[in-house]
Q: What sequence folds into this?
């Protein structure tokens, strides 16, 4: 079940954390995984670790916010599975503070990586998927973009919410082609770092624990599989029982 042998999967932002976990799991299910990251060394390290474990992977570093770079990197690959995972603020560090205290210049990073990065990569792989009559596009979004959060990440929320809406519409456009498109709305993850409210928020999660890369990877493996052929245009909450959509 959830066999991915013979499929080529691209996981963006896979040089660490959730993306690395997704890349490892898809490879263990038989996919040939292209490990993307803006930092080439990170992509290489994850790809090498997957190869040492006996699975197929190679690095494919590029900046998802550069549309030309994304198209050029993907051009030679018939991508069957795209996991749009790259996020946060891309190459920048996301500063947590109330929206009213932000400057418009600070919005570009979160919007570009979380929305435009998804647009560029999805747009690059979609024609080939449609032509071949099979494809899986998965967006790693956030409850911050579906119901909002009061922790000072409004621009990030806007990017994630925009990506979720984009992918739902794309899903409906391609629903009869054999291509499915879904998003996973994550709750608080273990790799987010301490923003000063992490411990307080963790206590509100019904399962009383943070999410892990393995949690996300398992759902991605299902969504990428043949068994998920009737699952499309969905934004699926994955948040330990918290309401994220």
A:
């Amino acid at each position: 079940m959830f066999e991915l042998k013979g499929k080529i999967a691209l996981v963006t932002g896979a040089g660490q954390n959730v993306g690395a976990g997704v890349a490892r799991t898809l490879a263990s299910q038989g996919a040939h995984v292209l490990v993307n990251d803006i930092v080439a060394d990170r992509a290489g390290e994850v790809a090498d670790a997957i190869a040492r474990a006996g699975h197929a992977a190679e690095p494919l570093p590029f900046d998802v916010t550069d549309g030309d770079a994304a198209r050029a990197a993907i051009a030679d690959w018939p991508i069957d599975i795209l996991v749009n995972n790259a996020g946060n603020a891309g190459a920048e560090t996301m500063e947590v503070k109330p929206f009213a205290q932000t400057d418009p210049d600070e919005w570009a990073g979160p919007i570009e990586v979380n929305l435009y990065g998804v647009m560029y990569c999805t747009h690059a792989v979609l024609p080939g998927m449609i032509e071949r009559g099979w494809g899986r596009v998965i967006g790693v979004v956030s409850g911050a973009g579906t119901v909002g959060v009061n922790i000072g990440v409004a621009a990030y929320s806007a990017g994630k919410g925009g990506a979720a809406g984009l992918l739902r519409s794309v899903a409906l456009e391609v629903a009869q082609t054999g291509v499915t498109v879904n998003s996973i709305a994550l709750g608080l993850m273990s790799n987010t770092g301490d923003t000063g409210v992490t411990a307080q928020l963790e206590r509100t999660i019904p399962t009383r624990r943070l999410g892990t890369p393995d949690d996300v990877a398992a759902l991605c493996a299902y969504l990428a599989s043949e068994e998920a052929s009737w699952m499309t245009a969905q934004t699926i909450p994955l948040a330990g029982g918290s309401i994220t959509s």
Remarks:
- The chain is about 40% helix and 15% strand.
